Automatic annotation (TrEMBL):
Domain of life per record: Bacteria
The protein's name: Inner membrane protein
InterPro entries named in the record: MAPEG-like_dom_sf, Membr-assoc_MAPEG
Residues spanning the membrane: 58-77, 109-127
Native source organism of the sequence: Pseudooceanicola batsensis (strain ATCC BAA-863 / DSM 15984 / KCTC 12145 / HTCC2597) (Oceanicola batsensis)
């Protein structure tokens, strides 16, 4: 397996971890009863559980582009650059969770940007 696909698998596991974290935090705030009911009305979470939810959703969005980048790199041929970018993406996504949840300003945005730039470089390197 290429390094990019390995990182993709690890990023998917990070997403699963974030779903679990959100589930625990959301139930702690809204209650298990609310979590078990049908979602006819949106449950608004505030504070830390709300930030955990938004960080999780942000990873879903970033993971779409990273998946494309990882598949392109694996198909075009893994290079040192694309492998390094993949690892930078994963490190940025791992750091993004506490940065968002704990409100690290402006670091949260800079960490997010590092992940996006790494993904963009992977895509561009695959085209060249």
């Amino acid at each position: 397996m290429t390094p990019e696909l390995t990182v993709l698998a690890l990023a998917a596991l990070l997403q699963i971890l974030q779903i679990a974290l959100y589930s625990v935090a959301g139930q702690a705030q809204a209650g298990t009863r609310a979590a078990l009911k049908p979602r006819d009305k949106k449950i608004e979470l505030s504070g830390r559980p709300g930030r955990i939810h938004r960080a999780m959703n942000n990873h879903f969005e970033g993971l779409i582009l990273f998946t494309i980048a990882a598949l392109l790199a694996a198909h075009a041929g893994s290079t040192g650059l694309t492998a390094a970018c993949a690892w930078i993406y994963l490190a940025a996504r791992i750091l993004y969770v506490p940065a968002y949840v704990l409100g690290w300003v402006p670091w949260r945005s800079l960490i997010w940007l590092a992940g996006l730039l790494a993904t963009t470089l992977m895509i561009l390197a695959s085209l060249l």
